[in-house]
Amino acid sequence: MNIEFITGTMIFIIGLIFGSFYNVVGYRLPNNMSIVFPTSHCPNCNHKLRFYELIPVISYIFLLGKCKNCKKRISLSYPFFEIITGVLFLLSYLVFGINMKFLISVTFISILIIISISDIKYYIIPNEVIIAGSIIIIIEFIINSLITDVSIINGVVMPILNGLGAFAILYLFKIFGDALFQKESLGGGDIKLLFLIGLVLGFDMSIVVIFIASFIALPLSVISLIKNDNNVLPFGPYLSLASVIVLLTNLNLDMILNFFTK
């Protein structure tokens, strides 16, 4: 059994564990609850979960997707996001190896997972996640600059400026959308999320992310319009999905331009 397989398996398992925690964070922060206390419990009957009920994915299968105490069905979103986190952590390892780029990648993915959970369930992108995530990634950029001898200007200041530029662009999109549809077209959380996306992926690719996310979300928007459904469509998960696609495919503007100019 080679070292790459063992390392990849460990990273996948670590991703599953973190994904379980991100489910908790994505549920509790929008409800103004501590992410530490009380300990994990069934939201329906408050049954305190024992250690064997907290094993990612396996516990869900073992319990047949139901609370051991009240038999209330547990949302499939819990094992889904656990598996997604594990898979994305593993893909980060396969794309970047073990280095600072890997650390930045899993940090970015972690933030996007929490944001997606929160936005899907409550249409809220917590400010705490954006702020804390941005600070952590900026610190990682500083460390990366020191390790690789990249100047602080290129390695830290420029990414921050890219984030601010991406934030400004989506804010302009919001102003245009609000005027066009005569209602709020984008939430404040989506705009703040673009700062983080621009910070990690760069200004140019943050624009690409907006278009990819809009393209993915378009079919559901059309269906909602046809059905005269007034439900708000959370845009954060689509921005997150598009960001992961760009991140893990190493997609860049030159590749896109070459594709369309061949």
How would you characterize this protein structure?
The chain is mainly alpha-helical and 262 residues long. Helix content is 71%, strand content 0%. Helix 1 (3-28) packs parallel to helix 4. The radius of gyration is 20 Å and the shape is globular. It starts with a helix and ends with a helix.
List the helices and strands and how they pair.
Blueprint (H helix, E strand, L loop, with lengths): L2 H26 L29 H5 L14 H20 L3 H23 L4 H22 L3 H30 L6 H14 L1 H24 L9 H13 L4 H9 L1
Rounded average pLDDT:
88
Q: Helicity range of the residues?
A: over 70%
Rg estimate, integer Å: 20 Å
Strand content: under 5%
Taking pLDDT < 50 over at least 5 consecutive residues as the criterion, the unreliable ranges are none
DSSP strand count: 0
Gross morphology: globular
The string of secondary-structure elements, in order, is HHHHHHHHHH
Structural class: mainly alpha
**What is the first-to-last residue Cα distance?**
43 Å
Q: What's the number of helices?
A: 10
Q: Quick one: biggest sheet? A: none
List keywords for this structure.
single chain; 262 residues; mainly alpha; 10 helices; 71% helix; globular
In short:
The protein is mainly alpha-helical. The protein has helices at 3-28, 58-62, 77-96, 100-122, 127-148, 152-181, 188-201, 203-226, 236-248, 253-261.
